[in-house]
Design brief:
Two copies of one chain form a homodimer. Chain A is built from eight helices and 13 strands. In chain A, strands 4-3-2-6-5-1-11-12 form an eight-stranded mixed sheet. Chain A has a five-stranded antiparallel sheet with strand order 7-8-9-10-13. Chains A, B: GO terms for molecular function: threonine-type endopeptidase activity.
Chain lengths: 371, 371
């Protein structure tokens, strides 16, 4: 096995990363890459490896997933999480799941169980479980279920936003002169430096050339209890399909940003479909992001569209395997890490939009070739 | 307004309809069409009219939606329901929702509220709510929420399947000679005449030429609590997009059948995309159903694929509006009703696969042109 054909890439959210916090985000992306690469070196599957990478991201308090998840309006943690296996094309997801430290491991379990075939009487196994039913499934599989999970950071963010929200609501019901300071009712959450990170994710290639993708999110702050976000939705948060022929490359993609916009454009699948049938990864990612996300007819009434995509493409040719990575985002920043099996440590960095352009209206693009 | 340009089509599930029960299914499809047409004649929107049609189907005890919903393994009703508006492209859905008589009205409410724009602080409104959070939303909107909803029919079906399931489970854990009669552990649920109907749905065209689609389901019998089915999933259960140019026809489609297969193929969106960019409705529906459902790489390990689609296409040309209807199914049967504004009463019928072909492997196709 050529170790260089192993590949992992992760991201800690497309959003707004405060410059002061960069070292924290980079450290967690590095740890996630190292964890996944250790498994890949042991010939573990792509699906297991992306799950492990996302579990590391979930365990970090600085990300909006698992432990650091944003709270609902009622102050609870409700997580969305999903995996897709490029080899079997099975998808597993949980939504609005409370009390579980690593929702991604539950999504992985649901995808793995589908390999066992139907249940007695030909009943098809579920691929997506939500709410209390998802929690019951966790208990039956011996996942540790606690009454609630709150991190200090998430609780502080919750209190800050709840206060802002109450002031904003007040301003809608009160006469103008009684309204609080307009700074407190800003309608542009993207400007709240450091407070907004979205869905995290990972994509990888294992020793057999299989691809997989995984994503996890605590959802938007002060979300409605029971709100399902893109990380739980087929085609929105993650997508993976192995290479099946010379003209159909392997692809794995994960998305992040404003949830409802990722859902309405089924962004992970839409980008994957475009990448898969094109020879040019970066070119196809740029054009599909521009036309089918920023220019989408589904978002025509939305002024600013916040999204990010991290994608890999595999190509088998006579000289061996080739893995290409590309990313794009219209959010102010996106924290990314990646490495192949020949590297000792991952490359980690925060990609930022140019100061001269407007987040939500412009995008930036980057890429890397490993072979 | 030319009344003939109004159009409604409904279906009471793609599954296995016992011949003895045909009059009951036809009567409920007729009532659903009449209800929707009455609203369309009052110049109500396509979205309101499909919602009303599906509410009639939900109220009937013979359908697997609303009142007649299949029960979960624990004996509870948990409904999935969604609407899509071809004009605004907004989608609203509820999943794993208990205690609400008409889940479709809640999905409709979620789609309607999106027209009001973002909440204070730029928070995007949710499009999909599940479980207890969805139930809390219903309470806050004055929907009547009961502790549980059980119909006599559903309870009888539940007991029958639960007994069969327990016998089947027993047969897996017991030595072969102790296994119960193999008739009781049949692995082919599609053969259980009259006991299996899936997701119901409606598509329509209003006086402005807008299209809309709606679907609702109680899910598979003995489903895992919290299991999300296609009727709650964007792109799987329903899809609608207005005509935007001569080459982009208006289309609305609803699907039914084995839930996980409809999800994995995002069948409503996949069919709509194909129909929308083709001049030939029936031809494109047949080829996309054959290639991307029965021949889907996502279902390559599935022996039999049970699905059904009901779709309309609108075309504006110089001589007025034209509406075309088509349906296809690989299930044994599908009960359908349709009418245009010039008809006094709807056409209702049960479409059946030829006795000579195998359900899940072959399909039948039908259509109607109204202009």
């Amino acid at each position: 096995m050529d170790k260089r054909s192993l590949f992992i890439a992760v991201h800690a959210g497309a959003g707004t990363h405060a410059k002061d916090n960069e070292p924290i985000y980079k450290a967690v992306c590095k740890a996630a890459c190292m964890q996944a690469m250790a498994l890949l070196q042991e010939r573990k599957s792509a699906l297991e490896s992306v799950t492990a990478a996302v579990a590391v991201l979930e365990d970090a308090e600085c990300t909006n997933a698992g432990l650091g998840s944003n709270l609902t309006m009622e102050g609870k943690v409700e997580c969305d999480s999903s995996v897709m296996d490029g080899k079997t094309l099975f998808f597993g997801a949980v939504g609005a799941l409370s009390g579980v430290k690593n929702p991604i491991k539950v999504a992985h379990r649901l995808a793995e169980e589908q390999k066992l075939g139907p249940l007695p009487l030909g009943r098809v196994r579920p691929s997506i479980l939500v709410g209390n039913g998802a929690q019951d499934f966790c208990k039956s599989c011996d996942f540790d279920v606690r009454s609630n999970m709150l991190s200090k950071t998430a609780f502080k963010t919750y209190n800050r936003y709840k206060r802002k929200y109450q002031l904003a609501e007040l301003s809608l019901t009160q006469p103008k002169k009684m309204r609080p300071n307009s700074n407190d009712t800003s309608s542009d959450w993207s400007r709240d430096e450091g407070g907004v990170q979205d869905t995290v994710g990972a994509v990888c290639v294992d020793h057999e050339g299989n691809v997989a993708a995984a994503s996890s999110s605590g959802g938007i702050w002060l979300k409605h209890s029971g709100r399902l976000g893109p990380a739980a939705i087929y085609g929105a948060g993650c997508w993976a399909q192995n290479q099946v022929s010379a003209s159909k490359a392997g692809v794995a993609a994960v998305t992040s940003g404003c949830g409802e916009h990722l859902i309405q454009t089924l962004l992970a699948k839409t980008c994957s479909d475009a990448i898969r049938s094109s020879a040019d990864l970066s070119g196809s990612l740029a054009s599909v992001f521009r036309d089918d996300f920023l220019g989408s007819e589904f978002l025509r009434n939305t002024d600013k569209k916040f999204g990010g995509v991290l994608a890999i493409k595999t190509n088998l040719d006579g000289s061996g395997r080739e893995v290409e990575l590309s990313w794009t985002h219209s959010t102010a920043s996106m924290c990314i890490g990646y490495m192949d099996g020949g590297n000792k440590s991952p490359s980690v960095f925060v990609s930022r939009l140019d100061d001269s352009v407007i987040p939500g209206k412009s995008y930036t693009l980057g890429g890397h070739m490993a072979s």
